[in-house]
Fold this sequence. Notes:
Blueprint: H1 2-13, E1 23-27, E2 29-30, E3 42-47, E4 50-54, E5 65-68, E6 72-76, E7 78-83, H2 93-102, H3 105-121, E8 124-129, H4 136-145, E9 153-156, E10 162-163, E11 188-189, H5 192-204, E12 209-213, H6 232-244, E13 248-253, H7 256-265, E14 269-272, H8 278-287, E15 290-292, H9 295-306, H10 313-336, H11 356-363, H12 368-383, E16 400-404, E17 419-422, E18 425-428
Parallel strand pairs: 1-5, 2-6, 7-8, 8-9, 10-11, 12-13, 13-14, 14-15
Antiparallel strand pairs: 1-3, 3-4, 6-16, 16-17, 17-18
Helix pairs in contact: 1-3, 5-6, 6-7, 7-8, 9-10
Amino acid sequence: MHKLLGLIAFVFTLHAAEIPQPVVLRAAHLFDGKSNTLVSPGLVVVVDGKITGIGPAAKIPSDAKTIDLGDATLLPGFIDAHTHVSMPYMEDWKQQTLNSLQKNIPELTLMSLAEVRNTVMAGFTTVRDVGSSDFIDVGLRNAIAGNLIPGPRMLVSIHAIGSTGGHCDNTGFRFNLFGRETGPEDGVINSPDEARRAVRLNVKYGADVIKTCATGGVLSLADDVDTPQLTQEELNALVDEAHALRRKTAAHAHGATGAKRAIRAGIDSIEHGSFLDDEALDMMRAKGTVLVPTLMAGWQLGKMLENGVYMPPPIAAKARLAIASMSNTFQKALAKGVTIGFGTDAGVEPHGLNAKEFELMVKLGMKPVDALKCATSINAELLGISQLTGTLESGKAADIIAVPGDPLKDITVTQRVKFVMKDGWIVKN
Length: 429
Ligand SMILES: [Zn+2]
């Protein structure tokens, strides 16, 4: 209990955001989220939480406070399209499993407060959170939107929707341990009608986005990593229902067969995509399906395997398979011109390291400026929030960050964010 009170005090002490007032941000450079070059010098005017001007010609209110960030680059707040902020990172696999079974939901929620704070402090002012439990994601989203706690703007998915025994079901426990089999109420479906019911339930209880598991996954016990787990008809129904209700869709998919079913169904993004073949990538290119490669998940699992960190042997074997394939798939997607989004699978690795993904993308051959676009304008488009954020333009929300120096010369400066403003509130300076 003392630990919990300490955590609450910690979070609230650090939520000393400054009240929005007209502000002029100056820095050596500016990246607007869509151009191929930086503008120098950089200047942004913020009034009432919105951007009202960019560049030297912008009209500056007489009562504006100037913040000069010096040799730094101003950028749109970053967007991570694949997080699990209600899943605090824990290296100890057994303890993490016990936590999810033993801890009360309020305690699990409070444990997530530090994670949403770490995320926004790293310059990620928006996240698409793709899979949670017990509505913790909805609670976090609402508390952040109500300014009760510091954190990124959240688009949440509640339950990821998958099949019985699939990656998004609870597997690895004995039959009937929990007194009933999982169903659409838990995001577990076995027919097109159940797919529609699960989508409707998620939307009813507050989902902004619909996440599905089209294939097996790495960190689940009862499935192969690449098998398809939903039929074409189930995915068609799921995507159709989600789009009818104006929700975007994201499919966890490692294997090519399941991914192609999701692409054919009209899914908006393929997450991970470790074993996508040429046909799947060509279909994505043709349909405009976005690939969110989550290279960081592979990076983290690779490090853990190298260090001999315990994971159940079937999971370790699946991790090795995915890691061996994902870099090559990323490079093929890049060469084919598939639209690539930015996502980290944070929770698989510690929250707040999100910007490491830029470094991994650049190491595999992406241009730094293109990597920055993935986490700004491209992700805003993918999430359906490009009217609100993702670029530095007049009329957009004042989600603005600053990194030291020039990120086009050294992409790793994105891991040392020195200033964060969200909706005009300064959360880090
Ligand atoms: Zn994930």
